[in-house]
């Protein structure tokens, strides 16, 4: 903690670092937490070489403006202790960093209040600045004389002088949606999202006003009360949620979090680990690279929105030597593996429908890298799924000025729309031969044309033919309309709902896979496929008298098998 209230000859000009273990346990010490953007070149941090000196005292003038402002606010609140990550974590100690990142949920949940420096894009900017507008409740209201017209029904009436008055407010009542959630620099950074979600109380300093959020109220100086749908990133981890509700809340968090920025991409899992820790107590599930194993395979149904993925300058359609792997973040089936752009969980969009899994998890592996059990993971994570796998053809048609990823065509002519995870490129993959086997095991290898993610955004060769390459579709499952049944009318009498004239067609969810360029016999995800079109015979899947496995095989082809995705 930072003790902002030390005495001595230096008085208020100094603060000092204190170890939490030295603070009294009863009564429990309260503290303020700071949520802010570091920016580039954080000037003062605690490292192993200055740790003892920081405990002796730090002159406030040596600290960046945002931290100085936080000290001012803490003192004005009458609080003595302040938690700031740059000063309270030993930044050059990987062990301390891992341990403290694992404690983020506890730090912000237990803080008396979190001060959010909303306007500062860097620690060097500060947030206690002159406002751009008058105070929301200014006594200097706008006033103007108003002369009412003559009443046409009473010719004897005379014009009356009136005063038209209105108080000044910073925004219209729409400011919460358009200015708060997206407009503040603080709300563009990855680390700060969990700080806001986990905190019991948050006071945010914006350009025009102060905003307050707690577990029962969200409001601001202009007096406009925000309801829960307008709170932006303020999602409370409610322990009373059931597992299904919690999985939907997690999906909302993934969407918001994935659109934020991180200075270091390898922080993708650590920067959300505090929230994950809180959700794990509700979901009671193993954690696999941003996913909850108990919610698989449905939770694997996510799609990416990479920047400019349809641009002719960024989608490669020919061989290249650009497959050199950058630093490992997560396996390809996990959403944190998307390095640029945002992610959306498709199962959240389909929550009004019933999920029918067509695949099962056979096994998985993930090894933690460091001290945070929900943080970084080692290269080598995988999942094995059993389900229908079919070879198909990916077609990317070229139109003037851009590429569009159109569809994946199955051998029987069926089609699925594909959402590419990122930039794509073809390559010659070494694969296990299916023509020869010994005791059921593949014994020889061959070469097959395949497709993989590309981690660059350089112009690819200009091709008039577009891209036409084999891929594999793995059927996760499908969503169908809720089954019709009986219900009660206003009098409590049972009413049988009429059967629909036509059974609704299911929405099928696929993983689009390519051969792994590095691990023989395994696959990597390159996209997500979904079939919305009517597929002849698909409605039979809900017929209880039919074998669903045989029906699926007839619809798509391919056999049920175990595939391992890395």
From TrEMBL:
Annotated protein name in UniProt: WGS project CABT00000000 data, contig 2.14
PANTHER family: DOMAIN PROTEIN, PUTATIVE-RELATED, HETEROKARYON INCOMPATIBILITY DOMAIN-CONTAINING PROTEIN
Transmembrane segments: none
Segments of this protein annotated with the region Disordered: 435-459, 486-505
Signal peptide: none
Span of domain Heterokaryon incompatibility: 31-195
A family per Pfam: HET
Organism: Sordaria macrospora (strain ATCC MYA-333 / DSM 997 / K(L3346) / K-hell)
